[in-house]
Design a protein that fits this description.
The structure is a homodimer. By secondary structure, chain A is mainly α. Chain A has helices spanning 18-31, 43-50, 54-67, 85-106, 112-128, 134-149, 155-178, 180-198, 203-223, and strands spanning 40-41, 70-73, 77-80. Chain A binds a DNA duplex through residues 17-19, 42-44, 52-56, 58, 74-78.
Chain lengths: 229, 229
DNA sequence: TGATTCCAAATCGTATATCATTTTCTTACA
DNA sequence: TGTAAGAAAATGATATACGATTTGGAATCA
């Protein structure tokens, strides 16, 4: 029986292709940490588990590869992407740049409600600090940033932000897990960003603030991390 | 005979998989404009032309899809991605942001030689103005920007820059084809960027200059373009 | 004539089969 | 005992085959 997979011939709803089913299935396992980095993704095994042939599974894994969640080696096979320390840092940096720009561009479109929602999320984050749980903190943190960026009129930029965010996804919680003290600073910086927006700061100021916010997260992560190559 | 495709069992060299051969082959046709936007990519036809089965072709096209060069429609097939006006603008904007940041980060690593090479390329661009050819101008233009960004220590950022650049690739020449006057301005702005670098301007200044440079290109493109939805 | 239905061709999606490569295990030899 | 050669197993890469879906057109009817 394994996992209940949505019937491909689901009546009424639009049936997903097997390749798509395999994609979401495997992806879910990766982001949930079920398949740890380095875990081998054997086509025949996955195909058997999903009760389909290897062809759609292969396609799914290639798609995951394109997103950077898996690595394929010719004639050897695929495995869940390793979390190279250097790459993690670089992606965080890139995310800061993209997110900063997206937030700045969104400025004129951010409504009172958006701002209120962001404030609310940051308040929730503050509450979380007392009984800290990296998982929920990370979740709220994502939603906070998403509220600010999603109004960006440039959809491509939003795509890039999300892609980068997801690439970091399956290990992002580690930042706050490893450096619990960072969470409090993070909330404070969020507040500063919200204040800037509310006080009609220039887009350059907001962009810089968001970028620095991520740099700071990154710095504390690195400080707490003895580089282990 | 058709196109001479590198033998998969090329002796000595590392043989490419058929999927990779198909990928580069189709991609080449797209970026060269041989396959215009909207052109259908029929698996069986391509497979026949490449003398292989449809399986690797399919894989190649999915890869192209992931890069945004092709679009796949379920049970219908793939076609070369349409050049949506809005998407073009958004990608250009995103490229400006990424390139600006990459160039700024590269500042401390740009050597005298790099600067000289960039200067040389811009001089070549200036010469090209007299007997203008959009194709070579675009080529040189790319190399100019590449010299500045490639020293960026953040490889991920370079990846993103290149990905965005290539996404625009198959229609980038149009900017200078449609707005020939823009080329001269472009060269002047390049010169300003080089001057900033030479005079040890702050990274923020350089970043802004590069970003504005692309904004200006975009603006003149839009000005010369009656929006045709 | 125009719209509708139905059939056939085109093409994709997936399964199965075969070939190629890599890895691992065994075995023989120094 | 350690190493190297070779066979066997595992797995990926590709080919072929077949079923499913879409699309275009022919035939039918009002």
């Amino acid at each position: 029986m394994s996992t209940a997979v949505a019937s491909p011939s689901a009546p009424g709803g639009e049936s997903l292709s097997k390749a798509q089913i395999a994609y979401t299935w495997v992806r879910e396992r990766i982001v949930s940490g079920d398949y740890a980095p380095g875990h081998r993704l054997v086509l025949s095994t996955l195909a058997a588990e999903l009760d389909m042939s290897v062809v759609p599974v292969r396609e799914a894994i290639r798609q995951l590869e394109a997103e950077g969640l898996a690595n394929f080696e010719r004639n050897v096979g695929a495995r869940v992407a390793m979390i190279d320390e250097a790459r993690y840092v670089e992606s965080m940096e890139a995310l800061g740049i993209l997110e900063g720009a997206a937030t700045a561009m969104a400025l004129s479109s951010i409504s009172e409600e958006d701002l209120a929602q962001a404030q609310d999320l940051n308040d929730q984050l503050r509450v979380t600090l007392e009984d800290f749980d990296p998982k929920t903190f990370t979740e709220l943190n994502h939603r906070f940033h998403n509220v600010l960026t999603c109004r960006c009129p440039n959809e491509r930029l939003i795509e890039l932000v999300n892609a980068e965010w997801e690439k970091l996804g399956h290990l992002r919680e580690s930042t706050f897990s490893f450096v619990p003290g960072r969470a409090a600073e993070s909330v404070a910086e969020h507040q500063r960003i919200l204040d800037l927006i509310e006080n009609r700061a220039t887009s350059a100021q907001v962009e810089a603030a968001v970028r620095e916010h991520r740099s700071a997260t990154l710095a504390s992560y690195l400080a707490a991390h003895p580089n282990h190559p």
